[in-house]
Design a protein that fits this description.
single chain, 355 residues, alpha/beta
Length: 355
């Protein structure tokens, strides 16, 4: 009878610490391997029995998952934010690998999704686009911060335009500061060109995926947001319900409650103490949250079925911030439903749901 083996890998750039544990919790083997494909594959080829492997999500996680998946029956990439045990007691590569194996044996690990490879190109192009966009926003903030640091008011967007550039530079009297501003403008021009190129490549790749055309039916989702949604979610079937997508997107409400029950006259009763709402969940995909909240913000300001949904929420006494959050959750739920079922967007259904 083949024995179960639970293997924890503590992966680093140069080396990987390995701990092999049997079903009783006894450590059968510990070693240090070079973090190279051939070395790792040779190690797993020499093992016998039913093998389960885990390692933490990190820089090498995607590469290692693709490398080991065809050779390991049970492979789990775990969420390091949930591994509180690794922060308890002494810490070293060998200890971390042993703790990962122990957590895997006890089924106490939270997996990180690494399932779809068909959208790998779209995912990488979306990452390029998002990275360049964030760098551009950061650079624009730096440029305005430079003007404000010298008492020059720079409200609006004129400070970024080429046709007004010389006029703005002349407001800076210090030669060194002016030269610094010129360098920032050069970076701004390069990043704008790079973002346009990244945008074209992202849209061209998105046309190859039928899901993007399906999601573009949703008002104000648009070609860029629909492409990013497909790249970030990968497949709708990884979420069983809309609430799981809300949690992944940072739109789920986290609550804290204590002392839920009490005894009165010898009978157990539920306490009337109100549940304390602490806010939205913090462990989430920030890009996906920005996508849904950005769509909700635009949709709440422009005419359309989502604006009507938003106004009905306000009419019921809901605060604007909570109404926009509710709209973002509704857009996320519609995205999941249309993608799963392959249906077309129907504004009348939205009215019925809100009634």
């Amino acid at each position: 009878m083949e024995r179960e083996k639970y293997i924890g890998l503590d992966v680093h750039q140069a080396t990987t610490s390995v701990a092999v544990m049997d079903e009783t919790g006894r450590v059968e083997m510990e070693c240090i391997l070079e973090t190279k494909a051939a070395t790792l594959l040779d190690f797993f080829a020499g093992l016998r029995g039913t093998i389960s492997v885990t390692f933490e999500e990190g820089t090498c996680a995607a590469w290692l998952y693709d490398l080991l998946k065809p050779h390991v029956p049970h492979l789990l990439v775990c969420n390091p934010r949930k591994n509180a045990l690794l922060n308890v007691g002494n810490k070293s590569d060998r200890i971390d690998a042993r703790k990962l194996a122990e957590l895997l044996r006890g089924n106490h690990l939270r997996p990180v999704y690494h399932g779809e490879t068909g959208v790998r190109m779209l995912r990488e192009l979306s990452r390029s686009y998002l990275t360049v966009t964030k760098d551009l926003s950061r650079l624009m903030n730096r440029l305005k911060a430079l003007y404000r640091s010298w008492g020059i008011s720079c409200a609006g967007r004129d400070v970024y335009y080429r046709r007004h550039r010389q006029e703005w530079l002349e407001k800076i009297h210090e030669a060194g500061v002016r030269r610094r501003a010129e360098h920032l403008y050069q970076q701004l021009d390069m990043l704008k060109h790079l973002r346009q190129e990244a945008r074209r490549e992202l849209l061209a790749e998105a046309r190859k995926h039928t899901a993007t055309a399906l999601l573009r039916q949703i008002p104000y989702l648009g070609p860029i947001r629909s492409a990013l949604a497909v790249a970030l979610i990968q497949t709708p079937h990884r979420f069983r319900t809309k609430r799981q997508l809300w949690a992944y997107s940072g739109l789920a409400l986290e609550t804290r409650v204590s002392a839920e029950h009490k005894y009165e006259h010898g009978k157990l009763q539920r306490s009337k103490k109100m549940i304390s709402i602490r806010g939205l969940n913090k462990d989430h995909n920030h890009d996906l949250k920005g996508l849904f909240k950005g769509t909700a913000t635009i949709a709440s300001l422009r005419p359309g079925p989502f604006r009507e949904f938003y106004e009905r929420a306000l009419a019921k006494g809901m605060k604007p911030t909570m109404a926009r959050l509710t709209l973002a959750r509704k857009i996320a739920a519609i995205t999941l439903t249309l993608w799963k079922k392959g249906e077309r967007f129907d504004a009348d259904k939205l009215k019925l749901l809100a009634a």
